[in-house]
Write a structure and sequence with these properties.
Low-confidence stretches: 1-11
Distance between the termini: 57 Å
Helix content: 40-55%
Strand content: 15-25%
Structural class: alpha+beta
Number of strands: 26
Largest sheet: 7 strands, mixed
Number of helices: 27
């Protein structure tokens, strides 16, 4: 009955986590095995994240049986992993220890009795039987299905070695294969640790106050609008808004920021962050599965499943490579004896060695391990890369375009100057703020905020027929008069003589100071000039310098702001080019033009504004993704904090990943070509073949893990 209920619950599809999955080829076999379960309509494996999505009806036990060939352990996606067992204590390694011991004893006995004596032969047989048990089960099963993978090739080679009397060689191959598999499992686990650590950051339970009662609840039972109590030294369990209290929170897990951020009433906080000082009362705003850290984990794991272009190439190559190697090995076995009177046992042995060295393990794993490691490292440093394709693309970038407001500047403009013409300052500001209060533009927010600070009653005015003038301003009717709030360019288009010499002089003077100027006017006259300044980010200038040092050819600022203000900001941050007074569609056109000229172009923005330009660029990078659903969903790369210094780090990581992927592919193919050349003089032995194959796999994995060492500077 319980099994039937589980099958019914799983009908729509469910995700499970896999423990012990270290081989890309084994992942494919496991996926096929799950697909063959009665009631399963589809199964999709994510090798990088070690997860499988099963669509249809299947119990956890049935799925685990499908992975029994590799001793895979399956658990529910939401279930926490059991306490990690030290590598050397893991059960899978005990047969390796036993086999190595028997191999050493067999070597010693062969030195005493001779290699052909029954005692060492029995020892070598035990090593082959124990060390290669699971290998043979899988290999023979695949052979019966005419499925030729690494396990099949190894099984044929070892059994062939035993048939021609090379028991010692077969035993050495089994041991080297088992040791290499264990080390591969260890290195893949280490590569995945970055995401596993993120998963364990948020607590499983929290102290909740409902009415007058306080209780500790699992996060799955916490409801929206519950009041969560977080004491000093505790981690925040859920996303929410601070209702009471003040404290500094370490947000490194989410944003990669090393410096704690001060939080007080009204501020947003994230699950997984550490409360360092005061007591906080937080209203829960998101369920456990919707928290920012849960989304980051989900997106990163999905990104690890997305194949990079180089990985797609390797997969296509491997499809033809394995049958070709089998054909070459077969020809090595039969051509010299048949055509050149060669010794059958010698050339069968050489063919078996070629079969072993031809295993595509290192080639298949060369790209995914690098992608998993790089994306995981980036996530821990507050950079969310949405897939291998974007990781590689970032490594090719030549030009980076920046939005101004909220990207190169802090995005918190404030009113600095007001100049009135024939109207009291407060009256004019009240009109402007009343018109702008419905707008989401940052400059509109600055005007409204200034009016609030001066305690002006802007809510008493009810504008009618409000119309947005894209990229230029806004208009509304108040007391039967149409008012306009917008850039000077709007009024030049409307009626050039509105801007008198005196007004133009004041506008020019304010813009020369790097301020953005807006005007309040009717169709007859200008009544108010409002100057707004948005401070340049402290990190902007250093980030631009690092990008140029890293080899980025051009950095360009794209803005709808006026030319003088744009040039003042551009000069202070050090970008090479600036384009001002651009409408959103003009930014899109300019991005396309840059792509035609340079090929690889990134656009950096806030993830909401300038969406067409972000979408059209080779890479769209969103600033301040933490807490911004739109940025997390739409951007190719999201910088979780408003820190532009994460951009040079991302470029460095991507370029290093590209370099390592190329090294891995060249090395894995080169070592096999070199080993195959040893067949000609007859120098290729079985143990050398397995060493070349598994050694290459281990080396490309360890080489990929060097990406973990790249840190934020």
């Amino acid at each position: 009955m319980a099994e039937l209920q589980q099958k019914q619950q799983n009908h729509e599809g469910k995700t499970y986590r896999i423990e012990g999955l270290s081989c890309a080829n084994c992942a494919r076999i496991f996926e096929d095995n799950v697909k063959s379960i009665d009631g399963v309509t589809d199964a999709r494996i994510n090798f990088g994240a070690s997860k499988i999505f099963v669509e249809g009806e299947a119990t956890l036990d049935e799925i685990e049986r499908a992975g029994a060939f590799e001793n895979l352990k399956i658990r529910d996606e939401r279930e926490k992993r059991a306490e990690r067992v030290p590598f050397w204590k893991q059960k899978d390694n005990w047969k390796v220890y036993f086999s190595v011991l028997i191999l050493l004893i067999s070597f010693a006995s062969s030195a005493v009795y001779g290699e052909q004596h029954i005692i060492p032969t029995i020892g070598f047989f035990i090593v082959i039987a124990v060390g290669g048990y699971s290998l043979f089960l899988t290999g023979l099963k695949n052979l019966s299905k005419l499925s030729f993978d690494m396990n099949t090739l190894m099984t044929i080679a070892i059994i062939g070695a035993a048939i021609i009397g090379e028991w010692r060689e077969g035993a050495i191959v089994v041991i080297l294969f088992a040791v290499s598999e264990a080390l591969e499992r260890y290195s893949m686990d280490k590569a995945r640790r970055s995401i596993e650590l993120l998963m364990n950051l948020a607590p499983n339970e929290a102290l909740i106050r409902r009415g007058n009662q306080e209780m500790v609840l699992p996060v799955d039972e916490i409801e929206l609008h519950d009041l969560m109590i977080v004491k000093p030294g505790q981690k925040v369990a859920m996303d929410g808004i601070v209702k009471k209290g003040s404290s500094s929170l370490n947000q490194a897990a989410i944003t990669g920021e090393s410096i704690a951020v001060q939080k007080s009433a009204g501020d947003e906080v994230f699950a997984g962050t550490l409360n360092e000082e005061g007591l906080l009362e937080i209203e829960v705003t998101k369920r456990a599965e919707d928290t920012t850290i849960a989304k980051i984990i989900q997106l990163v794991e999905d990104a690890q499943a997305e194949k990079a272009p180089s990985q797609a190439f390797v997969d296509r190559f491997a499809k033809y490579y394995t049958p070709a190697i089998m054909a070459v090995a077969f020809l090595i076995m039969i051509v010299p004896p048949l055509l050149f009177d060669g010794d059958w046992s010698t050339w069968v042995y050489q063919g078996l060695a070629a079969l072993v060295v031809g295993c595509p393990c290192a080639l298949v794993v060369s790209t995914p391990v690098a992608v998993v490691t790089a994306i995981g490292n980036a996530a821990r440093n507050g950079v969310l890369i949405k897939g291998g394709i974007h990781l590689e693309e970032a490594g090719h970038l030549k030009v980076i375009a920046f939005d101004k407001t909220g990207t190169l500047t802090e995005g918190k403009p404030v009113v600095t100057d007001m100049v009135t013409f024939g109207l009291k300052e407060n009256d004019a500001l009240t009109l402007a703020a009343a018109i702008e209060k419905g707008s989401g533009h940052p400059l509109a927010g600055a005007i409204v905020e200034k009016a609030r600070q001066l305690k002006l009653d802007i809510d008493a005015i009810k504008p009618d027929n409000v119309q947005s003038i894209t990229g230029k301003g806004i208009s509304a009717v108040i007391n039967k008069t149409r008012y306009y709030v917008g850039s000077p360019g709007l009024f030049r288009e409307m009626k050039a003589d509105l801007l008198t010499d005196e007004i133009n002089a004041r506008i020019t003077s304010l813009q020369a100071e790097g301020k953005t100027v807006m005007a309040l006017a009717t169709e007859q006259s200008i009544m108010l000039l409002i100057a707004v300044a948005d401070h340049v980010r402290e990190s902007a200038s250093l980030a631009i310098k690092r990008l140029h040092k890293a080899g980025i050819q051009k950095t360009i600022m794209l803005t709808g702001d006026n030319k003088r203000t744009a040039e003042a900001v551009a000069k202070s941050v050090g970008v090479t080019n600036v384009r001002s007074e651009l409408l959103p569609e003009q930014k899109l056109t300019y991005i396309k033009k840059l792509q035609e000229e340079y090929g690889h172009v990134a656009m950096i923005g806030d993830g909401v504004n300038d969406a067409p330009a972000l979408a059209a660029a080779s890479i769209g990078v969103a600033m301040g993704g933490a807490g911004t659903d739109a940025a997390l969903e739409t951007a190719d790369i999201a910088l979780m904090a408003d820190d532009l210094n994460k951009l040079p780090y991302t470029i460095q990581l991507s370029r290093k990943a590209l370099k390592i992927i190329k090294q891995n592919i060249i090395f894995s193919l080169g070592i096999k070509a070199l080993a195959l050349l040893l067949v000609i003089p007859g120098w290729l032995t079985l143990w050398l073949a397995i060493f070349a194959d598994m050694g290459a796999t281990l080396i490309v994995t360890l080489n990929s893990m060097r990406l973990l060492r790249i840190k934020m500077k």
